[in-house]
């Protein structure tokens, strides 16, 4: 499975953070009526194919440019700064704030994990230990900081694995039980475990820091695949995720595994990346791959 066949879903993702007249004011964007209310922000940037997004330790939002081969920073006032990844055509994908105060990101085509400071300096690129030279590759996609002080990431290529990398760059890999399930998004849960999506398996997975897996199907066998993609721990204690083909935002409870879903207002929007907002906020933000928007959903 190569990077192009892996991701018909990831052709255009964030191109959606600034309106042509600037980012909408927070006062107008925060008049939420109820849980599940979504606000969208159109963006003028085109063709860079933004993908992952995360709240940075500096109070800004950080996201990757899949086609632009860049890491970007956007302030809450809508000011964007771009930083080029050293490895050319590496296809940066997921991004997260690390326990060391840096931003860590995956490089899907480069088969690497990268690290960048909040000032925009890339201070490391770490090559995955698996032989990624085959057509399937390793294809690292999602990444998150784990409760054990390490970075955890997904590998969608081949059999599919969950990887762990220390801040010193030491990598360990764990094969996912469902072969070919395409693990994609990953996040640390409130229960001390890591939670991830299985795009082709139509499941939400859980892995302990010692490598023990549990999988939760989104629908009965034979049902259409909603292709779960991004996942994040919400401020309400639930795990929130996107469903690319289902055009929905969902959440799952960490104890009971109960799933609730909310349709996006724009049909065919293909929601992808998702993150909790900056500290002391109660909403979740996500990207819409095909509608060229950023979405915001309330949790309360």
Description:
The chain has 300 residues and is mainly beta. It has a single domain, classed as 7 Propeller (Methylamine Dehydrogenase, Chain H), CATH 2.130.10. The chain is 3% helix and 43% strand. The chain has helices at 3-6, 26-29; strands at 38-42, 50-55, 61-65, 70-74, 80-84, 92-97, 103-107, 112-116, 122-127, 140-145, 151-155, 161-165, 171-175, 183-188, 194-198, 203-207, 213-217, 228-233, 239-243, 248-252, 259-263, 271-276, 283-288, 293-298. The strands form six sheets. The chain has a four-stranded antiparallel beta sheet with strand order 1-24-23-22, with no helix packed on it. It has a four-stranded antiparallel beta sheet with strand order 2-3-4-5, with no helix packed on it. A hairpin with a 5-residue loop joins strand 11 (151-155) and strand 12 (161-165).
Overall average residue pLDDT: 83
- CATH superfamily label: YVTN repeat-like/Quinoprotein amine dehydrogenase
General shape: globular
Biggest pleated-sheet summary: 4 strands, antiparallel
Q: How is the largest sheet built, in terms of strand order? A: 1-24-23-22
Compressed to H and E, one letter per element, the order equals HHEEEEEEEEEEEEEEEEEEEEEEEE
* Fraction of helical residues: under 10%
The termini sit apart by 40 Å
């Amino acid at each position: 499975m190569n990077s192009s066949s892996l991701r018909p879903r990831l052709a255009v993702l964030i191109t959606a953070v600034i309106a042509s007249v600037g980012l909408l004011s927070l006062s107008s964007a925060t008049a939420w009526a109820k849980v599940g209310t979504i606000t969208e922000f159109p963006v003028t940037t085109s063709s860079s194919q933004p993908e992952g997004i995360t709240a940075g330790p500096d109070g800004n939002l950080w996201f990757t440019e899949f086609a632009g081969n860049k890491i970007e920073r956007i302030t809450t006032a809508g000011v964007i700064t771009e930083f080029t990844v050293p490895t050319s055509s590496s296809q940066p994908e997921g991004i997260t704030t690390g326990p060391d105060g840096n931003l860590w990101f995956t490089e899907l085509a480069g088969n690497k994990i990268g690290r960048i400071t909040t000032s925009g300096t890339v201070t490391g690129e770490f090559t995955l230990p698996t032989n990624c030279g085959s057509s399937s590759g390793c294809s690292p996609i999602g990444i998150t900081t784990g409760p054990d002080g390490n970075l955890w990431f997904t590998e969608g290529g081949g059999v599919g694995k969950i990887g762990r990398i220390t801040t010193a760059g030491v990598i360990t890999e764990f094969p996912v039980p469902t072969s070919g399930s395409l693990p994609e998004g990953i996040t640390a849960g409130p229960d001390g475990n890591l939670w991830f999506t299985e795009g082709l398996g139509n499941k939400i997975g859980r892995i302990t820091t010692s490598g023990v897996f549990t999988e939760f199907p989104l629908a009965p066998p034979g049902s259409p695949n909603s292709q779960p993609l991004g996942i994040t721990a919400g401020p309400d204690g639930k795990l929130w995720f996107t469903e690319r083909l289902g055009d929905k935002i969902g959440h799952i409870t960490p104890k009971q595994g109960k799933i609730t879903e909310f349709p996006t207002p724009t049909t065919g929007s293909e929601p992808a990346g998702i993150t909790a907002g900056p500290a002391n906020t109660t909403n979740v933000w996500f990207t819409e791959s095909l509608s060229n928007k950023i979405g915001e959903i309330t949790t309360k």
